Prior knowledge:
The complex is a heterodimer of chains A (350) and B (161). Chain A is an all-alpha fold and 350 residues long. Chain A has one domain (80-349). In chain A, 64% of the residues lie in helices and 2% in strands. Chain A is built from 13 helices and 2 strands; from the N terminus they run ααααββααααααααα. The longest helix of chain B has 25 residues, at 46-70. Chain B has 2 domains: 1-75, NADH-ubiquinone/plastoquinone oxidoreductase chain 6, subunit NuoJ (Four Helix Bundle (Hemerythrin (Met), subunit A)), CATH 1.20.120.1200; 123-161.
Amino acid sequence: MDQLSALLHMSPATLWMAFKVLLVFAGPLTLAALMTWVERRGSAMIQDRIGPNRAALFGKWRLLGLPQLAADGIKAFMKEDLVPPHAHKFLFWLTPILAFLPAALGFAVIPFGQSFQSGGQTYHLSLLDPGNGMGMLYPLAIGATAVYGVLVAAWSSNNKWAILGGMRASAQMVSYELGMSLAVISIFMTTGGYDPHQIIAAQNGMWNVGPQFVGFLVFFTCMFAETNRLPFDFAEGESEIVAGYFTEFGSMKFALMYLSEFIHLVTASALIVTLYFGGWRVPFVGNPGVLLSVAAFLGKTLFFCWVFVWVRWTLPRFRYDQLMKMGWKVMLPLSLANFLFHAFLMFRRG
Amino acid sequence: MFLIFALITLVGALLMFRLKNLITAGLSLVLCFIGIAGLFVLLGNPVAAALQIIVYSGAIVVLVLFVIMLLASHEEENPEKPRSIQRWGSAVTVSALGVGAIWIVKNSKILASPTTPNVDPMTLNRLGASLFRDHLVGFEIAGLLLLAAMIAAVSLVKREL
Lengths: 350, 161
């Protein structure tokens, strides 16, 4: 690390920061692109179909349909960029950015591996170092701004279906945020800190999913609602409101919004892993080292990404009133009860 | 860094009351809030920044935009007759407040003898301690007021319970 930074005339800290920015931006983006493939192949597998298998590199290598990703990207770039005549031009142009930015920013605080020391300096494997004071509040704040992508998309396209879809999606995101935040707060309480590094350090020996199983259930369910995935995908509905809030979006604008949904999925999985499944910890290994810890984190995150796909193609969707009832009358009280229960336990222990 | 966030805040605030379209005005308000959150981070209070974004831009403005979208008109209505006394009165009040704020900053004792500021950032633990230990009465009264407002709103909307 020191030699490389001397070669580039940079301080090791700067080089490490640049490397991390690149990694944290490109990593979830790559995973999200791969997830679009996993989603299609996975759905095909679950429904006993074949899935995308026609795209081939140089007309020869099909590679299980993986070239489909490149084909989709090229197609999205080549298509005509259409703006509907009655749309609000500026906001319509701004929307894909508003949808993409929160998705890309959310990962910044999550530690994706064990911190290591080199040349007398400690390097942390998360974009924001511990002790930044923001901690796990950061992904909550970024997630709270994600709703603007939906709202602005809905309003700027000047379309009834878009408005209906956007209203449903944003109401759902705002309602489920409460239950989710309360579940996270009970983790803050039992950990005694809210920095993700602290939360992972506190999960030595016992992952949070054991003592906080109710909180995990609430958080996991709310993540489906926050990412607008089935069984809560009320943002769209082909038979009633077409594609919902992005009905009017085409070409690369649509591709960005579609991709940001999958980045949200990756970030949500990473959050679940960090909060409830010990982050980069490996069972029965106290000090896994950099490579093993990153591999463990990646493995757990990919597993939860797969669970999101799995659930989507297994469960039927809810009705909208059922969704709202569940958010306010089941998830919120459950999360509150979990919080009070853990507060009581801590009070008894003194 | 300060100038960037101050400019974001000011541009957001100016756009918010210059734009006629209520939705774009609401979005400019969000821009203003994000600028304020950046200023909070510069002041060594990332917790306030996070709460600013979670509560104000994440919940309150979303609900405001929601209500505006449900209304038929998204444009500000023109007043029935222009009232110049309102305009002049507000200009005088705002300039008096501005002069007062500048006067207070100019005469503050901290500015006269600048000391090295307390650099360790605000944490959630310290915030909780100050809310529930030092300012408990104020906190509880605020909670009671919010509860009363909520019950009043529910009883206004739901005529027959």
